Amino acid sequence: MNIAHVFSFAKNGDGFLLDGEPFQIRSGEMHPARIPVEYWRHRIRMAKAMGMNSIAVYVMWNYYEPSEGAFDFHTGNRDIEAFIRLCQIEGMWVLFRPGPYVCAEWDLGGIPSYLLRYPDIQLRTDSASDSRYMSAVARYIDELVPRVKPLMAIHGGPILMIQIENEFGSYASNAAYLEEIRQLWIRGGIEGPFYTEDGLVQVEQNRSYVVDGAIALSNGNAAQIEAARKMFPAVPIMAGEVYPGWLTHWGDTALQGTAVDLSATLDELMRKNFSFNLYVIHGGTSFGFYAGANVDADTGEYQPDITSYDYSAPISEQGVATAKYMKYREIISRYLATPLPDVPDPVATLAIDSRSLVPQRFASIWDNLPSSLPAGQTVDPQPFEMYGQMSGFVVYRKRLEHYRGGVLDIGDVHDYACVFIGGEYVGGASRARMPRDRAQSLNIMHRSPLALPSSGSNEAAVLDLLVEGMGRVNYGHTMIDRKGLVDPVTLRDESGVTEVLTGWEVFLLPMNASFIEDLCPVCTDPDRAGLFFRAVLSLDTVGDVYLDMSQWTKGVVWVNEHNLGRYWNIGPQTRLYCPAPWLKPGDNTITVFDLHQMEAKPIDLVSTLT
């Protein structure tokens, strides 16, 4: 039987108490959604061996409610209750961070994309401003409450505190919204303790805290804790996100955060007995289509995140103790009365012996289009969300009755489009800026129209737009980031007459596991881009492995129907992580969908991200 514990705040706001005694929170953040369930225990033990006594857990709402009202807390790595119980079994406390908004470099910051079907939706606001959003939030929290309540420390569980929203002061000032979320938990019988997370300046300016709640500081350190204590003397302050690395976007020159050294910061936090959370101690992987994006505040450029969430964290993407890990472990151990447990052995990697795979052409997307949507839905092309699709690809098709060439303008496409005339690839558009040589080689435009090849025949031709939705923006005021065609499509002919193109066929391609499993192995036109390739990897034993996609262009990889995520030759990531539990002894099916490649290239099997 688990023993009930009382986690509380010192009366003078001086710190945290556990059963009435001073308690330093030493937390490492990791996300169950980014870690195969088979590795949860290993990663928790790794955090404990570095000196942590707690795990901070983001819950990505859209991972558990991908479509309205359909919750899944059971399949794969979605059993959040099991993860929290595993933390307790391993002697770790938990900081619970359920949002509803989490940021986390995760698609739409964890908010479900189905909300974007409302043209005038407002996110992250109270019910007086948008009842549709807060009604969905209430449904989400009502689903969490019976799962979370037995896991609170007061009921014998490991959860010390629940965070209300996330970094809201960086978004707006709306105390009513934060209080409405807090009351949803209270209504369910969970009365706290609660806390909020924000930058020091933001929490001071926008008062983004809650009644009787602790305050956690983003990018926090000892000096910021001391400054915040003077501003808010009645509640405890902790460094809620201490960054050991940083996020990386597609097109960055290198993986970010490698030069960060927290040694001095950690030493001071430990010396002054301040509570802290390392964001992240282990990042894992944004498998599938869940990696998010940013918009540069200065340039307005869209910046999609890479698939790996290694983050240059102390525990690497594949669970290895890095040099940072060993350095930080030594610093923390100096201040502890008892020795730390041994560092767990790393997970075995595949015995590779410089092995490569050469996939074979398997199928064409053009031979695997589903039925088009009813004509009434497609007079004007709409974003994915208006058709009920969360992620993947969509083909927008328009028959041009008298095609002679011209200039095609598809507006601010979200986020990457390949354009075909009569089955011939003629160029495309990328919302994200690409290196000039890569863009020119594929005739990819960035925020400019595409010149189409001339035709003297004046005959009918079919225009196909194969559009990929990449990560939705997860931070800032541009989060309402619908995917696909978001502007009218126009064609200016050679005489200068511009026509708005209406009356489309639309084919939804979510590229989920069932779609990949049911692919028809037909390729009637092998010279038309949009091909699937397949390889078989035969194994005697399994282990972790990376697939090196550096000889490919842009696409997605599945292993035994598990989506490893996106690759893109603009880098800096060129390798995709495949965890051992997704492999099996015997034959394993590797499926590649590449937007541009028409000839297969080798895929090297390697043991590390870099």
TrEMBL record:
<dbReference type="InterPro" id="IPR031330">
    <property type="entry name" value="Gly_Hdrlase_35_cat"/>
</dbReference>
<feature type="domain" description="Glycoside hydrolase 35 catalytic">
    <location>
        <begin position="16"/>
        <end position="334"/>
    </location>
</feature>
<dbReference type="InterPro" id="IPR048912">
    <property type="entry name" value="BetaGal1-like_ABD1"/>
</dbReference>
<dbReference type="InterPro" id="IPR008979">
    <property type="entry name" value="Galactose-bd-like_sf"/>
</dbReference>
<dbReference type="GO" id="GO:0004565">
    <property type="term" value="F:beta-galactosidase activity"/>
</dbReference>
<protein>
    <recommendedName>
        <fullName>Beta-galactosidase</fullName>
        <ecNumber>3.2.1.23</ecNumber>
    </recommendedName>
</protein>
<feature type="active site" description="Nucleophile">
    <location>
        <position position="241"/>
    </location>
</feature>
<dbReference type="InterPro" id="IPR048913">
    <property type="entry name" value="BetaGal_gal-bd"/>
</dbReference>
<comment type="similarity">
    <text>Belongs to the glycosyl hydrolase 35 family.</text>
</comment>
<feature type="domain" description="Beta-galactosidase galactose-binding">
    <location>
        <begin position="531"/>
        <end position="588"/>
    </location>
</feature>
<keyword id="KW-0326">Glycosidase</keyword>
<dbReference type="Pfam" id="PF21317">
    <property type="entry name" value="BetaGal_ABD_1"/>
</dbReference>
<dbReference type="InterPro" id="IPR026283">
    <property type="entry name" value="B-gal_1-like"/>
</dbReference>
<feature type="active site" description="Proton donor">
    <location>
        <position position="167"/>
    </location>
</feature>
<dbReference type="InterPro" id="IPR001944">
    <property type="entry name" value="Glycoside_Hdrlase_35"/>
</dbReference>
<dbReference type="InterPro" id="IPR019801">
    <property type="entry name" value="Glyco_hydro_35_CS"/>
</dbReference>
<dbReference type="Pfam" id="PF21467">
    <property type="entry name" value="BetaGal_gal-bd"/>
</dbReference>
<feature type="domain" description="Beta-galactosidase 1-like first all-beta">
    <location>
        <begin position="381"/>
        <end position="508"/>
    </location>
</feature>
<dbReference type="Pfam" id="PF01301">
    <property type="entry name" value="Glyco_hydro_35"/>
</dbReference>
<dbReference type="GO" id="GO:0005975">
    <property type="term" value="P:carbohydrate metabolic process"/>
</dbReference>
<dbReference type="InterPro" id="IPR017853">
    <property type="entry name" value="GH"/>
</dbReference>
<keyword id="KW-0378">Hydrolase</keyword>
